[in-house]
UniProtKB/TrEMBL annotation:
<dbReference type="InterPro" id="IPR000100">
    <property type="entry name" value="RNase_P"/>
</dbReference>
<keyword id="KW-0694">RNA-binding</keyword>
<dbReference type="Pfam" id="PF00825">
    <property type="entry name" value="Ribonuclease_P"/>
</dbReference>
<comment type="function">
    <text>RNaseP catalyzes the removal of the 5'-leader sequence from pre-tRNA to produce the mature 5'-terminus. It can also cleave other RNA substrates such as 4.5S RNA. The protein component plays an auxiliary but essential role in vivo by binding to the 5'-leader sequence and broadening the substrate specificity of the ribozyme.</text>
</comment>
<dbReference type="GO" id="GO:0004526">
    <property type="term" value="F:ribonuclease P activity"/>
</dbReference>
<feature type="compositionally biased region" description="Basic and acidic residues">
    <location>
        <begin position="1"/>
        <end position="13"/>
    </location>
</feature>
<comment type="similarity">
    <text>Belongs to the RnpA family.</text>
</comment>
<keyword id="KW-0255">Endonuclease</keyword>
<dbReference type="GO" id="GO:0030677">
    <property type="term" value="C:ribonuclease P complex"/>
</dbReference>
<dbReference type="GO" id="GO:0000049">
    <property type="term" value="F:tRNA binding"/>
</dbReference>
<protein>
    <recommendedName>
        <fullName>Ribonuclease P protein component</fullName>
        <ecNumber>3.1.26.5</ecNumber>
    </recommendedName>
</protein>
<dbReference type="GO" id="GO:0001682">
    <property type="term" value="P:tRNA 5'-leader removal"/>
</dbReference>
<dbReference type="InterPro" id="IPR020568">
    <property type="entry name" value="Ribosomal_Su5_D2-typ_SF"/>
</dbReference>
<comment type="subunit">
    <text>Consists of a catalytic RNA component (M1 or rnpB) and a protein subunit.</text>
</comment>
<feature type="region of interest" description="Disordered">
    <location>
        <begin position="1"/>
        <end position="20"/>
    </location>
</feature>
<keyword id="KW-0378">Hydrolase</keyword>
<dbReference type="GO" id="GO:0042781">
    <property type="term" value="F:3'-tRNA processing endoribonuclease activity"/>
</dbReference>
Length: 132
RNA sequence: CCAGUCGGCCGGGCAGCCGCGCUUCAUCAAUGCCGAAAGGCGAUGGGGUGAGGAAAGUCCGGGCUCCACGGAAAAACGGUGCCGGAUAACGUCCGGCGGGGGCGACCCCAGGGAAAGUGCCACAGAAAACAGACCGCCCCGCCACCUGUCCGCUUCCCCGGGAGCGGAGAGGCGGCGGGGCAAGGGUGAAAAGGUGGGGUAAGAGCCCACCGCGAACCUGGCAACAGGGACGGCAUGGUAAACCCCACCGGGAGCAAGACCGAAUAGGGAUGACACGCGGCCGCGCAAGCGGCCCAGCCUUUUUUCCGGGGCCGUCAUCCGGGUGGGUUGCGCGAGGCCGUGCGCGAGCACGGUCCCAGAUGAAUGGCUGCCACGUUCCGCGCAAGCGGAGCCAUACAGAACCCGGCUUACAGGCCGACUGGCAAC
RNA sequence: CGGGGUGUAGCGCAGCCCGGUAGCGCACUUGACUGGGGGUCAAGGGGUCGUCGGUUCAAAUCCGGCCACCCCGA
């Protein structure tokens, strides 16, 4: 309510909800993290807020574990990682099972790193070859 | 104290910081914003409330909703299956009965019908189900052989005896034929009541005793069934989670059910205006008509023409109905929880009091931290009980999705009660 | 969330209705033909029938309970 800066910071990380939105982000840039896969799409609308979505497939665990993964990621975005997101961009975090085991500090650090970093100079073939 | 059986219950607690869903109150924002509409929406602060015993698997039963149906019944199909009760109902639960297991507490059982019918019973075996007869046992007849007895004849040594031949009848073994039998053998999961005695040519429920089986009837019980049992005289192998028979139950789908609001685009119908189409073939149809193809026409592609490709065979306006996305609803006062009293062996039922207890929809309960409790491992002290320190991401299985009653499955650890068998003490 | 289906050899499938012997194709092994490969021929090995119980003399098959995978309804 105070200045522009506070208003921007105040939260405003929206949420992706519908299936077409997820499919659109899937076509964007993919950044592989240690415990997750981050998908980023520039919507070309810098005025709007950033939006985040979470994907946890049924393969990663039962309902309790899937809920916990999503909640931990959501909390990490709310507390830290959300501030690093660019306005007008969509972010989808595809969780892996390791999200359950890693400590919360490590999780936020990894998320921050992948959100801020521009695409790494990485051989794309290698990142795809390793599958868990 | 040890070992065990059964039943019930809990399934971390407190606190701090930052957050989430629903609801409510106050203030501000509202002649506001989003949306076609329906409808929805903000900020700050305060209050209330917020996962389970299995929320799971979706295996049964109901409520609720829509569809179908004249009522009802039958057939078909599916399910259930000792008896009685509980219940809204059940394949669940309770009590009993029968069978099996355990020293016992107690546990397990799809537990109707095989003298209604059909099917199947591999291999082995003679034979696998109105019995039959391989080996075998017995009797009779015929044939052959052997053994010994008796008689007659011949011959030899002194009437006695030996040898040979013939005959008679007996016994044995073998073969063939006829008849009787089912005790024994072996096979098999299973072989046609069991044991003993009599009996017989040999045998056999052929007869008898005991046991088993069936069973009129009697007694007890609501019943399943239990006890007794005249009599029968061994007939009736197993399999129904094989077909089947009998009794009872069941219409189908499921909240993504269903209801309401309802654009754009496409398509349907009606009316009106304008324009106008001439024809051929095929299919469906009684017909009206509908659909498809071809020719012609128009537009487009090409610099132009022809060929070829694509498009149009009506257009526009208004209205109507259906309806996708979307929104709202269904959506939590209920076969409800707790307490008490009474009835009942019990499952439960009745009455009284009291409480309101999740409603999300890319889906709310989370993240971080401290202390405590309990568990476990290691170390130190101690005779021991125990104490101190450190570690274990230690604390399971697991997340409401319309609701309820059950079943099944998963589950770290712990608590309570009843009972059984041992040991010790009194 | 709801509704269906399938698990048999390394792979793809029969066998299950009506219970007694688990079979087919490809692949694999060995041998022969060839200088070698390929190919052909001959012989051969390999299966807890997903798992746990039950019925039966006997279960891949019949009946329950679990497990895994696949498909359908936005």
């Amino acid at each position: 309510m105070a200045g522009d800066d506070a208003k921007r910071n105040e939260k405003t990380v929206g949420r992706l909800k519908s299936r077409p939105q997820f499919l659109a982000v899937q076509k964007g840039e993919k950044r592989k993290g240690r415990t997750f896969l981050l998908e980023v799409l520039d919507r070309q609308e810098p005025e709007t807020a950033a939006r985040a979505g979470f994907t946890v497939t049924k393969k990663q665990g039962n309902a309790v574990e899937r809920n916990r993964m999503r909640r931990r990621l959501r909390e990490a975005v709310r507390l830290k990682a959300g501030f690093a997101m660019q306005p007008g961009h969509d972010y989808v975090i595809v969780a892996r099972r390791d999200v359950l085991d890693v400590s919360f500090e490590q999780l936020t650090a990894q998320l921050l790193e992948r959100i801020q970093s521009k695409p790494q100079p990485k051989r794309p073939g290698e990142s795809r070859s390793r599958k868990v």
